[in-house]
């Protein structure tokens, strides 16, 4: 068994679509980033790469690489999933928290879980996504951006 932890933060900006877990969420701001800024996917991909001690998404998809500018983060996650498969691991379960004052996550939870399940090729029942506020405290409380945390458990097939 291997366990991995991922964390990421992206800043809100106007004029970009908001993507969380590969789902476009209706909101008046998006997340700034070299990719589509999908903070949840980045945390999940980092958890997966961390579990197999393969660095982080910055190692595999450096933000200095202009070929991947604006890349759909789903592709990054799919590549991480491919890597663990090659190493003979399966995802047992994934638990993630999206920390943001708004938009409220619970409304999109099922869609996000279904999107992650499809990208990772695992059952929806193996995925948990929770929304959390910080009660108005800190940068998430000031609605300056979104943070995400993820934990993944892998087993050798
Ligand atoms: Mg990121």
Helix/strand layout:
Layout: E1 2-14, E2 18-20, E3 23-25, E4 29-31, H1 39-51, H2 57-60, H3 73-86, E5 89-99, H4 109-120, E6 127-132, H5 138-141, E7 145-156
Parallel strand pairs: 5-6
Antiparallel strand pairs: 1-4, 1-7, 2-3, 5-7
Count up the helices.
5
How many strand segments?
A: 7
Mean pLDDT: 96
What portion of residues is helical?
Answer: 25-40%
Q: Helix and strand string, N-terminal first?
A: EEEEHHHEHEHE
What fraction of the residues are assigned to beta strands by DSSP? Answer: 25-35%
The structure class reads alpha+beta
Uncertain regions spanning at least 5 consecutive residues: none
Features:
32% strand, 5 helices, alpha+beta, binds magnesium ion, two-stranded antiparallel sheet, 157 residues
């Amino acid at each position: 068994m291997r366990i991995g932890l991922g964390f990421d933060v992206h800043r809100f900006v106007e004029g970009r679509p908001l993507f969380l877990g590969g789902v476009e969420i209706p909101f008046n701001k998006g997340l700034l980033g070299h990719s589509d800024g999908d903070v949840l996917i980045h945390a999940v991909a980092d958890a997966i790469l961390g579990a197999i001690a393969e660095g982080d998404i910055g190692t595999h998809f450096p933000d200095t690489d202009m070929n991947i500018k604006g890349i759909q983060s789903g592709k990054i996650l799919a590549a991480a999933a491919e890597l663990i498969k090659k190493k003979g691991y399966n995802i047992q379960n994934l638990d993630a928290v999206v920390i943001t004052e708004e938009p409220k996550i619970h409304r999109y939870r099922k869609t996000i879980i279904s999107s992650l399940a499809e990208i990772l090729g695992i059952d929806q029942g193996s995925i948990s996504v929770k929304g959390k506020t910080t009660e108005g405290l800190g940068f998430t409380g000031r609605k300056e951006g979104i943070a995400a945390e993820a934990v993944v458990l892998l087993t050798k097939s």
